[in-house]
Amino acid sequence: MAIGDVTQGDQYGVLRSTSEAPPAHYILNIQQFSSLTKHNVERYESGQFEAGGYKWYFFCQTYIPVRGTEVGGSPKWQQDKKVGEFLSVYLAMAEPSSLPPGWEVYATFRIFLLDQNNDNYLKLEDIHLHVTYNQTRCSNMHLDAISRGRRFHQMRTEWGFDRFIDLKEFGDSSNGYLQGDDCVFGAEVFVCKERSKGKTECLSMVKDAVAYKHTWKISSYTKIMNTECETSNILNAGDHKWKIKLYPNGKGSIGNYITLNLALADPTNLPPGTKILAEFTLRMLDQLDTRHYFGKASYWFSASKTEWGWKRFITHGTFFQNNRGLLFKDVCSIEAEIAIHGEATVVG
């Protein structure tokens, strides 16, 4: 962006500096550092500490992560490629699962390494570098280095430095970082902003859904023939309560048909925005033969869409046939088979 003959720009990078002040929040003293490699300890995590109202920890290792590939919000480590040239250090949130869904924390942080020869610290931090350059006066360049806040959330729980320090530089005793096989790291974290991303919808699909079966036996069917709707006892499937609803003369009094639906038993208890994907079969059992009458469907149930099925499930003529066992000795048996394949929830 140019204003007159003044050019401005923004760059991002890592600031490497020296500090006499110790880290404000945590210090880690590692004795016999070489024993970590000797015993194949590829990663060491510090204890937890609190800063800005959140819990954090940092960790060191000598492998460089493959950026762009994440597993559970953390970098995926390429264990078969031993770089062995740099020491990597990262800051991580200790309890990201405790964050409300959609919650984000912006924090600036610095990682420290003690120079034991000079009693000061090597300090690394992410920065936002703002450059102002006067084109007519080439020597007039102004730099503003501002600590860069990183965004921590449930999908990205850690940030840090792949190449915190060259291992040769680290191991050279004249630099003071590793003395008598001992070293001291530190960290400080400053939360600069917190925010919610608004409403967040999470769809959780079930890989291997379990089918739940329930049989509803209606005795004395002729006694319910003139009722609007008959409802089964509550059945449980996939952490939700369900019921079968039978309309002897069709829902909406369409006549000459039986309506058969599956319904949520208590939809008012569902959190707003919740949807449940159920695959279900409702089956009228032939009590004389195996010529069962059934319907199969998949449907997203919710507080506003509480039941689904077949308005014209079966005609009265077919249901009351004497040579069919759908109604036998005034008994009708209906079997429900329900598998929950997914659930969507909304928070925020």
UniProtKB/TrEMBL annotation:
Domain of life: Eukaryota
Residue ranges constituting the MATH domain according to the UniProt record: 23-189, 211-338
Gene3D superfamilies noted in UniProt: Apoptosis, Tumor Necrosis Factor Receptor Associated Protein 2, Chain A (2.60.210.10)
A Pfam entry, by short name: MATH_2
SMART domains registered for this protein in UniProt: MATH (SM00061)
InterPro entries: MATH/TRAF_dom, TRAF-like
Annotated protein name in UniProt: MATH domain-containing protein
Organism: Centaurea solstitialis
